[in-house]
Every structure is written in structure tokens, then in C-alpha cells.
What does this fold into?
Amino acid sequence: MTENPFRNLPAVNDVLDQPALKPALETHAREVVTAAIRSELDDLRARIGAGTAEANGIAAAVVADRVVARLSHEMRPTMRRVINATGIVLHTNLGRAPQAEAAARAGYEAALGYLNLELDLATGKRSSRQDAVRPWLCRLTGAESATVVNNCAAATVIVLRALAAGREVVVSRGQLIEIGGSFRIPDIMGVSGATLHEVGTTNITRIRDYEKAIGPNTAALMRIHTSNYRVTGHTETASLQELVELGRKHALPVIDDIGSGALFDYSRFGFAGEPLVHESVQAGADLVLFSGDKLLGGPQAGIIVGRKELISRIERDPLMRAFRLDKVTLAALEATMRIYLDEERALREIPVLRMLNTPREDLKKRADGLAARLRAIFGLAAEVQSATTFVGGGSIPEQELETYVIAVSADGQSAAQLSEKLRAGDPAVMGRVQENRLLLDVRTVFPEQEADLCAQVRWAAESNPN
It folds into this structure.
């Protein structure tokens, strides 16, 4: 009679007693470790049954070592640190804007304990959570009032719902953009209950197109900044000033969705055409909408500034409770706004601004130094090259950003294999593959991350690609 090969596998309790599992039992619940042992034994049974593994010689200690590796993989956080070496400053898939240290610390402290989220400490009475950011936003933009929700799409929905539900909003056909994740402005507007009234054509919309569309059911005029694409050539569009004059003529509010949310002129970084929040306010827009986690460099938020009476109507909408920010985000956003009170401090401390403002010669110096360290890794070639990248995050789409990259290649591995292994590390490293070489862009690698980057590249280059 043939012996059952599965009987040679160790018992669960025998594996649990192995010294290698003692740290795991101190870190994880016994049930979690036991489940991992059972899963490992089930995998071994399947392999034995398929003839790809031998049952003889599989000791409890061997299984315990495999369980440790399994737990290390299964129990690590899904969201992990990533070194962004793509050069894309506002990388949507990597969380867009990294926070200023002061903002991150404010959010951390808010998360750890209690704070006066909706309490007036002077009177002891209930207050609005918007009071944390409203005065700073008004001070920075010149607006009468301000409020915030959890992203700019939510800002669009609640503004249109509060001002135009069941009525029409006039908008240029050339501004009906699709934003990230296949979300389209017409769909977002439809959720609000407002009816979209398109005017003009893709490339030309004049002020008279808006005026012809105005009727008894018109609730607002809207301008949407085409932040993630540009139409060039034979084009014409009504200016914000023209829309404001038309709105006042017909007693209609003008909504200006500027998207990325620049608080000061980005031409200092070599970029043109990005609207400024305070300029929209000064031009007379009744409401201005923008994101917190793009060019502003803060946490994810949809920021609405403008006329006090309209902001009050928005905040009275029942949907405001569903869209409101939590205490951690509010604390981080307030800290970011306070940094902006000092422009020079903002350029130093807000990572997005600091990365965009880094001189090319500084990038070259860092790239040369990092490449020299990488060349010390056996089997790795590293060459500094000039390159271009983009801001990302749907901001300033057609204007390139000059940078320096390190083109690396490892013996016996394709660039795709090297890139895959770097993504599996802790921290993970994200570069970009071009012509079978992995490009590491130093613009988006923080100086304090360089040691970790070298360590991860060393591990990926020296380990077996198979």
C-alpha cells in the first residue's frame, strides 16, 4: 500500500512551536499566525499533489521560515511609502502634492487627540468647522467668504446644487472637460440637479453666445479652466471680465472653476496661462472654485471663495455634511494657508513650490552626486542626462519642465524587470522606462530619500531577476 505523502508534513502545532515564529506571535494575533501556517501547508499539499514538490524533508522549521515570509508579505500595509523618481511633481497615482512639514505635523497632532473642531473656545458654544480656514482663505484671496469640501468635483456639485438645482447653467462647449478617472464635467453637473446649457463651439465661444442662451430659467454663468488640455490655433473665448459684466447685466452669478488653484504667479517658474485665485476674485467672479492638492500644494480639498451670501447658501445645503472635511485635513489645510502668508517661506517649505523652484544647476549637481553613488553598485550603469518632464495632476498640461535624470541599467535585467523590483521594495521606487533604461528624475526625489533610493537600487540590481 502506497504511503500517504501528506502525512510527512508537520502538524500546525509543531510549526507554531518553532523559534522562528516567536517574533511573529508577539506581533500578530495567534489566530493570524495559525491561519498563515494552514495556508502554507495547503499550498504545500497542492504542490505535492501536482508533483512539483516532495513531502520528504519538509521540516517544521522550514515551514516556519516560509510562514514568516508569508506574513511579512500579507500583513504589510497596502499603502506604502514611495520615492517618486518620475519627475512628475503632482503625480495623481502617488497622491499628488506632498505636504509641507508644518501641515503634516498639524494633521498628525489633530489625529492624535481632541481639538476645537466645532467649538468657540472663547464662548464655549458651538461654532463652524469652516472657521479654521475661512479667515486665512479670505485674507489670501481677497474674497468676502470661503468654505471647503473634500475635493473640487464636490465643490462643483454643491455650488451648482445650491445655486442652480432645477435650472440652467450656461457654459462653453469648449470647456466641458473630462478630469481624472473618466469623470466628465457634464456628468458632475448633472448630479447637482442643474441643467447644462452648452454654447459656442469647441474652439470659439464669444460673449454673445452666452447672452443668446440666457432665459427665464438661467441660474448662473460658468467658466471652467481647461487645466488638463489646451486648444490652440483658431480660437476665441469670452474673458472672465466679459462674463462678469454680462452676469451683472442679467443679475446672474458667475462661477469660475479655475481647477489647479495657484495663489501666486507661476510665471516665475517659467509657466504661463495659469489663472490666479485673487485675480478671479478681483475680476468680480461671484464664486471661485479650486483644488487644495494641486498647485496650492496642500491636502485634498475643494475650496470655494466668493460672495458671503452665496457661501452661506452653500453651507446651508444638507449635502454639505456629506462633503465636509475631517479634522485632520482641516488642520493641514489651515497650516498650509498660514505658510502662504509669507511668500518666501512658502517657496521654502511647500514641497510642490520648492521642487518647481529648484534651479537646473542644483538638479545637475544632485544628479551627478547620486549617479556616482549608484555606479558603485556592482553590475549597474548610471549616466546623467538632461530631460524634460511635466507638472502633472492635470495642471499646466503643455508646458515642459527641464530637469536631469539618471539613466540606469543593470546587468542581466531589462529596464522593465528592474522597475518592477523597485516597485516591490520598501520604500517602493517609481521611475520611468525609456529605451530599455530606467530613468530616475532627481527633481521629485527629496534629498533625505537619496540613501533609501541607493539601497533599493542596490537590492534590485544585485538580486536574481528570476
DSSP finds 19 helices and 17 strands in the chain. The longest helix spans residues 30-49. Residues 8-74 form one domain. The first strand starts at residue 82 and ends at 84.
